[in-house]
Amino acid sequence: MNYRHAYHAGNFADVVKHVALVAILKHLRMKDTAFAVIDTHAGRGLYDLASDEATRTGEAEAGIGRILDAPGVAPGALATYLDLVRTEGKSRYPGSPLVAARLLRDQDRLVAIEKHPEEAAALAETLAHFRAAKVVRGDGYHLLAGMLPPPERRGLVLIDPPFESESEFHDCARVLGGAHRRFPTGVYLAWFPRKSAGAGDLFCDELLAGGVSRLVRVGIDVSAARKDGDRLTAAGLAVVNPPFGFVEEMHSCAVVLAPLLGEGRPAKFAVETLAQG
Predict the structure, then answer these.
(1) Is residue 134 part of a domain?
(2) Is 160 a catalytic residue?
(3) Catalytic: which of 14, 39, 108, 160?
(4) Is residue 65 included in any domain, yes or no?
(5) Which of 140, 131, 12, 27 is nearest to 77 (CA)?
């Protein structure tokens, strides 16, 4: 396993991804009927921000560290997200499956898929006290189709791969497109890095060409100038079937987050409706 999220947990991209996740889950909770959450690349669920990995990169300090105790009033989804982070204590950061598990009601369900044995074991320990959460060890791309549509007929699929492979954008678009055909009413949240604008654009174009008719793209760029090297300074989210009010919610969060997460200037934060059916 080359990619270790422990180096990147709580960075600017995690902040935006998890705020979007919270916004979607809060919307799903508005109806009494049950929903399912499927996390295809779940990771270990909880990260130590005082670990050697986290302190070596300093990414959390430039992400969640800048907003956790920032003055001012946070809008709805951002406020809920910050409360969830504070629940874990000052030096720990919840990954997507733990964020989702804490927002489940008794009737809801989480399936967290993780391929790598060490991460899956840690994830099982993290989620052990959540009766509605199930950890599955395996390849999320391969397992997803067999889990759709969920019995609840409502829910969210989170696809957050490490993007180690050169074909990851295409693989993600292919799997998401196939999932959408099996479960067309589900909400899908896919994270992607933006090391070039073109790759993200092509990814969204491939989703649209594959039959997605409602798509919002969220993008954030924290760097004042593009730098060479491997450090990630921009990331995006593709949201298929965004809930009502999602765009407005993310815009209100962006107003607070952009000045705090930017390096040398406010971050560039865009919420774009690419197709609305």
Answers:
(1) yes
(2) yes
(3) 160
(4) no
(5) 27
